[in-house]
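Okay, can you check this protein?
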Amino acid sequence: MTIPADGIGMHLYTMRDVLAEDYPGTLKRLAGIGYRTVGVSGRFGHSADKIRSFADEAGLSIVLEHVKYDRIADDWAGALADVQTLGGKWIVVPSIPSDLHSVEGFRTAAAAFTEAGKAARDAGLKLLFHNHGRDFDEVDGTVLFDILLDVDPTLLGFEFDLYWVVNGGKDPVDYFRDHPGRFPALHVKDMAEDGSWEDVGAGKLDFAGMFAYAEQGGVEQWLVEHDAPPDSWASAERSYRGLSDLRY
C-alpha cells in the first residue's frame, strides 16, 4: 500500500522560518512539491481568515491547528471558532504544562479534555492531543499518556507524533492495535542514528512497519514534521519523497 495523496501534509512548525518571511508564498511552494494538506502552528501576525485565504489560493486544505492548553480555560470558544474559520476538522492541544506532569496532573488534564472535547464536538470539531516523549514516563506504575486514553474516544483523539513515541520508549504499533481509531493524525518525524531529528525516510524509524497498522489506528493524515531542519525547503522536499515513495 501507499499513503493516499490527499493524506500527505506538512505540519507548518517545520516551515516557521520561511513562513515568517512569506506565508502565502510558502504555502504555494509546498503545494508545488505535492503536499495537499497542512497543520497550522503559529499565525505570524495573520488572522484565521487570512490564513484560510492563503491556503485556498495555494490549493491546500487546513486540517488542524495547534492551540495552547491554557486556552481551554481562557478562550476555548474563540479557539474553536478560529479552527472553524480555517476549515479544519481537528483542534489540537500540543502539550500539557510541566506542572501537570504527574499522575494527578494528567487526571486533571483528562477532565479538562473531557469538557473541551464536548465543546469541540458541539462545534463540529474533534479535540486531539499531541504527545511528546516524556508523556510516556511511568510514575507509580502508571504511564502518564495512558491516563488520557481513558477519556471517552468520542471526545478525545490523538495527533500521534511517532518520533516522540519512540523517544518515550514505546512502539506506535502497540497503540494502533490496542486503541483502534484513536489516532486520526500523525506527525511523521524521523530519527537519526544519534537520536536527533531527521528527514522522513532518511532516519531509522520503521515507518512501513508502523503504517501497516495505520488503518487500524484510524489514521487519516500523515503530517511531515522536522523540529529543526538545517534547510526547511530541502527537508520539505526530501520528506515528501520519503512519504510518497513509501510502500507498506
